[in-house]
Write a structure and sequence with these properties.
Blueprint lengths: L2 E11 L5 E11 L3 E5 L6 H9 L6 E6 L2 E2 L5 H4 L1 E4 L11 H11 L4 H14 L15 H13 L5 E5 L7 H17 L3 E6 L2 H7 L2 E6 L2 E6 L1 H6 L4 H6 L2
Parallel strand pairs: 3-8, 3-9, 6-7, 7-8
Antiparallel strand pairs: 1-2, 1-4, 4-5, 9-10
Helix pairs in contact: 3-4, 3-5, 4-5
Length: 237
């Protein structure tokens, strides 16, 4: 299948000369699900921020549908990013949290309501529209955050460690819910985590990062059964 997102020789060095991203190369077919796996400080968030346009590389290119997107500001990339803390608006109800980006786009009330209804159904939140965000459970909040991210119809969905603030039991449960929702979507998804079980569940392709570089790029099976080197073997446990 044709590659939708292509990252070519992407580099970012800090002011002190420390390498944040070291020659990243990546190709993602349309509709694919990638997990970005690696220990803390390996450059996962930096990579996502570059794709989102929140950070600018020193060199290299990021292409989407055969066109470089480096000159596009974040809002023109039409990508959706969900952060670990969900960043929901506590003073707004579920409906208005999900509708926020649609309102910003200047959509009519009617269009907003129709898309919010579709998002509530997708994330199993029917009937929650008038609930206040601070009355929701952790899992419900996460689904509201996902619904809000998906509502404007992004061309790419990115999630940065969406589960890492939660306890182990809840994490497993929410991971199942997330992967179920992903399977109903047709957009390319990039899921960042430091946990290899999460990476296996969320992605059919995995890049394993360390010190700003990609150490191995393959399927979950490749990483488990054909680790590139001792470091990979050790990281995978
Ligand atoms: N804007 C920045 N200023 C200073 N250090 C940064 C900046 N961006 C990234 N880094 C450094 O780059 C490395 C990778 O960070 P990060 O991408 O957050 O890793 P991860 O998300 O895998 O934990 C870290 O050493 C971090 O301190
Ligand atoms: Mg991070």
């Amino acid at each position: 299948m044709e590659n939708e997102l292509i990252i070519h020789n992407l580099k970012k060095t800090g002011t002190t000369g420390v390498c944040f991203l070291n020659n990243i190369n990546l190709a993602l077919p349309r509709g694919s699900r990638l997990s970005v796996l690696g220990p803390s400080g390996s450059g996962k968030t930096t990579l996502l921020r570059m794709i989102a346009g929140l950070d600018i590389p020193d060199s290299g290119d990021i292409r989407f549908n055969n066109a470089s997107i480096l000159d596009l500001p974040p809002h023109k990339r039409n990508f959706g990013m969900m952060f670990q803390d969900y960043a929901l608006f506590p003073h707004l109800d579920v409906f208005h949290n999900i509708a926020f980006g649609l309102k910003m786009k200047g959509m009519s009330k009617q269009e907003q309501a129709s898309i919010v209804a579709e998002m509530l159904a997708l994330t199993n939140l029917k009937g929650f529209e008038n609930r206040k965000v601070d009355e929701l459970s952790g899992g419900e909040r996460q689904r509201v955050a996902l619904a809000r991210t998906l509502a404007p119809g992004p061309r790419l969905l990115m999630l940065d460690e969406p589960l890492s603030a939660l306890d182990r039991v809840l994490r497993k449960h929410l991971l199942d819910q997330l992967t179920q929702i992903f399977s109903r979507l047709h957009i390319t998804t990039i899921f960042v985590t430091h946990d290899h079980e999460e990476a296996f569940a969320a992605g059919s392709q995995i890049i394993l990062m360390n010190q700003g570089g990609i150490v191995q790029n393959g399927t979950p099976k490749d990483l488990m059964h054909r680790p590139m080197n001792d470091w990979v073997r050790q990281f995978m446990g």
